[in-house]
Amino acid sequence: MITGGAWRKKAALGLAAIPCLLFLAWHFCAWIFAPTLGVTTPPTFVYGIAKTRFTLVEYGDLECPYCKDAYPQVKQLIDRHDTLNWQWHHLPLPMHGEAAQYEARLVTCAGWMGGNATFWQAIEAVYQHTRGNGAGLTVPVDLLGLQPKVLVQHLDACARDNTTVRQVIAEQAATAAQKRIDATPTFELRDNRSGRTLRLPSLLDDAGMLSAMDWLASQGGADAQQHQ
Fold it and tell me: Is the pTM of this model over 0.90?
């Protein structure tokens, strides 16, 4: 027999679960129905404070060993600077074949279905479990440790079959080609207030990044966009 107090407790737990279930259902439906609803791009995935003055854009390849080495450095850099966030831009290199393409689609599906935090969790998980240089993952998708688990069973199908996600990756690679970016990792610093960008020669340390942000914010930063 369920007492009144126990019944109210169960009811409260059930009501508390509703927002979570609605959130998961929304993301799942967004993936399923994206091609028919005319969705052409998933959300922009940003690590750090969403609305801040500067964004570090990384053109990255998940099979690139240099990108893998840079990943923790970039993450720590962003964690130290509240005026800077990090945006990922896919550039799977031809030399890394289908493995790089698949992983780009995989993390995009993860973010599309699970949200911004899941996207970055997927990036880190792929780097932890890839052989690199086009050799691909060492474990199946369900062993990458991604959350929420309810979405994991759909990730592989999305990465292999979703034409909209394929289009997204192709468009990002085409944008990089238009900018004559053909190596990974390549970094751009963007001033979100003015829209000006500066191509960086490499990943800068704290002092170098602060100098680049100051220069881009100054009047001299107007020349940065002209030379892209």
Answer: no
